[in-house]
Write a structure and sequence with these properties.
By secondary structure, the chain is an all-alpha fold. The protein contains 3 helices and no strands. Keywords: Signal.
Length: 92
């Protein structure tokens, strides 16, 4: 087979394949994803909270540290349930 003829056939097949596959591309849809972005945005209480440089007021450092430590400790050493606090099936 002639090299030039082989190149033409290959080019023609490539062109036909490209034309056939171009129909598979979805057109860009205006507004695609707007609903998801709106739903995510509505879940944010204060969108500018990260820009707020004012310190938290109302609790001092020692009390905050103690509360944080107690919270973390509650997961490593949980408190046992008090007697009678579990449902026993009897009315009191």
């Amino acid at each position: 087979m002639n090299t030039c003829k082989h190149a033409r056939i290959t080019s023609a097949l490539a062109l036909a394949l490209a034309a056939a596959l171009s129909g598979c591309a979805a057109p860009a849809q205006v507004g695609f994803g707007d609903t998801v972005r709106a739903a995510l945005g509505s879940q944010v209480i204060a969108p500018d909270a990260a820009r707020n440089q004012d310190p938290v007021s109302g609790i001092d450092g020692r009390a905050a540290r103690a509360a944080s430590d107690n919270y973390e400790r509650s997961f490593t050493t949980p408190q046992p349930a008090a007697a009678g606090s579990l449902l026993s099936g009897s009315a009191k």
